[in-house]
């Protein structure tokens, strides 16, 4: 394994063991629940949105290391950002984890979220990494229904024969 991959794994394990913002907010005005039936990940987000900005965020739940670390890093990265900034970050994160697995370029402008770049090589783990994001989207849209990651539409990756030769 490369030093960068080792570092990314350490960051994920650290956020799993000591998640940031792992708490229910005392004062919140947006909330949503997310569930991944494939591996049992559950998350409950609590947001205090003031105007167009996420003033405070917390989460509770249980799940695999990737799901919990993704929730932790996501909450740390979006606190203080506007809804538009969060939307752009979500789009870049989604593109990174669902992109071509042979693309080894480091994701730009994603900060600590870049540690999830390797998830795209394991399609079954993509849903774990994105559960918190889809739950966040539901909270910002004030949806009452629990987000089931199974209902999320995924863009299909079609590998061409040239892509297979690179492996």
Structural summary, described in words:
- The protein has 5 helices and 4 strands; from the N terminus they run H-E-E-E-H-H-H-E-H.
- The protein is of the alpha+beta class and 167 residues long.
- It has one domain: Sufe protein. Chain: A, CATH 3.90.1010.10.
- Strands 3-2-1-4 form a 4-stranded mixed beta sheet, covered by helices on one side.
- Helix 3 packs antiparallel against helix 4.
- The C terminus is likely disordered.
Secondary structure topology:
Blueprint: H1 3-17, E1 30-36, E2 41-50, E3 53-62, H2 65-78, H3 83-98, H4 123-140, E4 147-148, H5 161-165
Parallel strand pairs: 1-4
Antiparallel strand pairs: 1-2, 2-3
Helix pairs in contact: 1-2, 2-4, 3-4
